[in-house]
Amino acid sequence: PRCRLWLSDSAVMAGSLTHHSSPNPGYSTNNAVPVPVITQTESRDKWSKKMDFLLSVIGFAVDLGNVWRFPYICYQNGGGAFLIPYILMAIFGGVPLFYMELALGQFHRTGAISIWKHICPIFKGIGYAICIIALYVSFYYNTIIAWALFYFYSSFSSILPWTNCDNVWNTPDCTNYFGMDNITWTNASRSPAEEFYTRNVLEIHKSSGLRDVGGVRWQLMLCLFLIFTIVYFSLWKGVKTSGKVVWVTATLPYIVLFILLIRGATLPGAWRGVVFYLKPQWGKLLETSVWVDAAAQIFFSLGPGFGVLLALSSYNSFTNNCYRDAIVTSLVNCLTSFVSGFVIFTVLGYMAEMRQVEVEDVARDKGPSLLFITYPEAIANMMGSTFFAIIFFVMMITLGLDSTFGGLEAIITAVLDEYPDQFYHRRELFVLCLVVVCFLGSLSTLTNGGAYVVKLLEEFGVGSSIIAVGFLEAIAVSWFYGIHRFSNDVQAMLGKAPGLFWKVCWVAISPAFLAYIIVSSLLKAPPLALFDYKYPDWSIIVGYIVGLSSFIWVPIYMVYKLVWTPGSLKQVGGCVQSPETVSDAFSSNLTSASFARVPCFPQRLAVCLRPERTIPDIHAENLNMATVP
C-alpha cells in the first residue's frame, strides 16, 4: 500500500527530497498550504548481495553483440584507429546515459512505466514503448540462443557434424579445405560449417523469402522451449532467484573467453588476425560513418534506454553507490568487447593461414554468421574440437540468457509497479503468461525462413526506435524534470552532487549524441540483405511499421494525458509552476510569497509536466510528516 502524507513548509529535506505543490490545480500557491507527496511503504524486493546486482547489470550489458558486433565494426572502421571514436563516444555519450538510468531507477525505485509520474507524467508513453520494444527483442533474440543450443547438442560427437561434406544436407558446392592439398576456393564454394548452419540448422533453402517462410522447425522449437523454461524459473521469484543464476551465467563466459583466447593465441597464423584487427587506418577517422558506428555500438552495448537498468537498479538500497557501479560495469563491458576481438581474430588469422588467403577474405562474415559459421569452422579443425565447441556454445547460451533475463525483467518490473493491485501478488502467473507470449511471438523466427524474420526484427523492431526513446528519455530528465533536481536526487543518495562534466553531458552532449545516431541512420539506411536474399521494398515498409508501432505510444499518451487532465489549456490561473522552477524554489527554502514571482504555465499542461514526488523509505523517518487516513 502507498500512504499519503503531508509535508509542512518547515519540513524541507536536503537535496531534491524537497517537494513541490499539489497536482490539484485548485490549490492556491499564494497561501501556505500543505503539499501532498507520496512515499513508498510497500515491501519491495532487494538484491541479496551487491554482487548479484553488478553481475546482473554486467550480464545484461555483455551479450552476443560484444562477441560478434564489436570485432567486425572495429576492423571495418579502421582497426585500432576506431578505438578513438569508440572511447570518445563512450565517455561523452554512453556512460553518462548509463549512469543516469542507474540513478533514476535507484532513486525512484520503480519500473519504466510508473517512474514517469515522478519525472514528467506526459512522457509516460516512453515506458510503454520500452516494454513493446523489449517484447520485439524477445521474439528474435531467444531464437538466436536456441540456434546455439542446437549447436551445443550437436557438439556431443567425436567428429563434429560441420567438419566434412559427407552429410545428407551437403551439396556439390561444399568444399573442405582443412588438411587437404590442391583445394581451389571459389566464389561458389561453401564450407561444411556454412552448409550445416544454412541447410541443417535453419533449412533456409526451403524458403524463398519472407513471402514463403515455410513450416516451423520442431527441433528449434524444442530448443526454444528449453530456453524459455530456464528463463521462467530464473525470473519467477524475482531478483532473489535471478540474482543467484547470474553467478553462473555472467561469470562462465569470462572463463570460456580466457580459455579460447589462450587457445587462439597458440594457433598458426593468429598474429595475422591480430594485425588485421588492430592495424590503424587513420584516414577512416575522417569518415562520418565511422563515428556513427562508434556511437551506435556503445549505445547498444551498454543498453541505456531499454528500461533494464531502471528495473535492476530499482532493487538497490537507496544509498548504494550507483556512480561507482556505472563506471565499473561500463569499463567491464568495453574491455570485454575489446578482448573478444582478440578471441575472434586470432581464429580468423588461423583460418586465413589454412585457406592461404588474406584475413580480409575470411572476415567477410558478420553478425550471427561469425558465431555460427566462421568460428565453429575453425574450432572443428583444432585439437580437442569437441571440447572447444561445447564450451564455446555454452558461452553463447549464457551470454544470451543474461540479456534475456534483463530484457524480460524490465517488462515485469514495469508492469508490476504500474498495476500492483492486479499483478503484485501474482508474479509467478504473470511471468508465465509473459514467457508464453514471447514463445508464441517467436514462432515465426523458427520457420525455414526464420532467419529473414530475425534480421527484420533486429533492424526495425529495435534499431531507431530504441534510440529515439533513449533520446526522449534524456530530454525529459535533463530539460523537463530538470538537471538541478536530478542532481539533487543523486546528492541525496550519494552525499555528493554530480560534477559539471556529468551535468553538461546530460543536458547537451548525450542528447546530441543520440540525435546524431538517429539522423545518420535514417539518412543513410543501407539496403537490407541476408545471404543472397535482398529484402523487397514491401518488407522494408513492414519494418518501419513495426518500428513505429512501439514509438507511436509516446505521442498517443501525450495526447491522452492532455485531453483527460482537468484544467484549461489557455487559462493560467492559480499560478501553476513549471517543474524546474518549483524545484528551485523549494531547494532554496523560499516562502510561499516567493511563488508569486515564479513564471506560470497553462493549468492543464503544467499538471501534465509536473512530477509527483516519491520519498524513499530510508528518508521517511527524517521528515516531519503526519499520516492522513
UniProtKB/TrEMBL annotation:
<feature type="transmembrane region" description="Helical">
    <location>
        <begin position="125"/>
        <end position="153"/>
    </location>
</feature>
<keyword id="KW-0479">Metal-binding</keyword>
<feature type="binding site">
    <location>
        <position position="333"/>
    </location>
    <ligand>
        <name>Na(+)</name>
    </ligand>
</feature>
<keyword id="KW-0812">Transmembrane</keyword>
<feature type="transmembrane region" description="Helical">
    <location>
        <begin position="429"/>
        <end position="454"/>
    </location>
</feature>
<feature type="transmembrane region" description="Helical">
    <location>
        <begin position="216"/>
        <end position="235"/>
    </location>
</feature>
<feature type="transmembrane region" description="Helical">
    <location>
        <begin position="500"/>
        <end position="518"/>
    </location>
</feature>
<feature type="transmembrane region" description="Helical">
    <location>
        <begin position="460"/>
        <end position="480"/>
    </location>
</feature>
<keyword id="KW-0472">Membrane</keyword>
<keyword id="KW-1133">Transmembrane helix</keyword>
<feature type="binding site">
    <location>
        <position position="61"/>
    </location>
    <ligand>
        <name>Na(+)</name>
    </ligand>
</feature>
<dbReference type="GO" id="GO:0046872">
    <property type="term" value="F:metal ion binding"/>
</dbReference>
<feature type="binding site">
    <location>
        <position position="402"/>
    </location>
    <ligand>
        <name>Na(+)</name>
    </ligand>
</feature>
<feature type="binding site">
    <location>
        <position position="62"/>
    </location>
    <ligand>
        <name>Na(+)</name>
    </ligand>
</feature>
<feature type="binding site">
    <location>
        <position position="403"/>
    </location>
    <ligand>
        <name>Na(+)</name>
    </ligand>
</feature>
<feature type="transmembrane region" description="Helical">
    <location>
        <begin position="291"/>
        <end position="315"/>
    </location>
</feature>
<dbReference type="GO" id="GO:0098793">
    <property type="term" value="C:presynapse"/>
</dbReference>
<feature type="transmembrane region" description="Helical">
    <location>
        <begin position="327"/>
        <end position="352"/>
    </location>
</feature>
<protein>
    <recommendedName>
        <fullName>Transporter</fullName>
    </recommendedName>
</protein>
<feature type="transmembrane region" description="Helical">
    <location>
        <begin position="378"/>
        <end position="401"/>
    </location>
</feature>
<dbReference type="InterPro" id="IPR000175">
    <property type="entry name" value="Na/ntran_symport"/>
</dbReference>
<keyword id="KW-0813">Transport</keyword>
<dbReference type="GO" id="GO:0005886">
    <property type="term" value="C:plasma membrane"/>
</dbReference>
<comment type="similarity">
    <text>Belongs to the sodium:neurotransmitter symporter (SNF) (TC 2.A.22) family.</text>
</comment>
<feature type="binding site">
    <location>
        <position position="399"/>
    </location>
    <ligand>
        <name>Na(+)</name>
    </ligand>
</feature>
<keyword id="KW-1015">Disulfide bond</keyword>
<feature type="transmembrane region" description="Helical">
    <location>
        <begin position="53"/>
        <end position="71"/>
    </location>
</feature>
<feature type="binding site">
    <location>
        <position position="66"/>
    </location>
    <ligand>
        <name>Na(+)</name>
    </ligand>
</feature>
<keyword id="KW-0769">Symport</keyword>
<dbReference type="InterPro" id="IPR037272">
    <property type="entry name" value="SNS_sf"/>
</dbReference>
<feature type="binding site">
    <location>
        <position position="59"/>
    </location>
    <ligand>
        <name>Na(+)</name>
    </ligand>
</feature>
<dbReference type="Pfam" id="PF00209">
    <property type="entry name" value="SNF"/>
</dbReference>
<dbReference type="GO" id="GO:0006865">
    <property type="term" value="P:amino acid transport"/>
</dbReference>
<dbReference type="GO" id="GO:0005335">
    <property type="term" value="F:serotonin:sodium:chloride symporter activity"/>
</dbReference>
<feature type="binding site">
    <location>
        <position position="301"/>
    </location>
    <ligand>
        <name>Na(+)</name>
    </ligand>
</feature>
<dbReference type="GO" id="GO:0051378">
    <property type="term" value="F:serotonin binding"/>
</dbReference>
<keyword id="KW-0915">Sodium</keyword>
<feature type="disulfide bond">
    <location>
        <begin position="165"/>
        <end position="174"/>
    </location>
</feature>
<feature type="transmembrane region" description="Helical">
    <location>
        <begin position="83"/>
        <end position="104"/>
    </location>
</feature>
<feature type="transmembrane region" description="Helical">
    <location>
        <begin position="538"/>
        <end position="560"/>
    </location>
</feature>
<feature type="transmembrane region" description="Helical">
    <location>
        <begin position="247"/>
        <end position="271"/>
    </location>
</feature>
<dbReference type="GO" id="GO:0043005">
    <property type="term" value="C:neuron projection"/>
</dbReference>
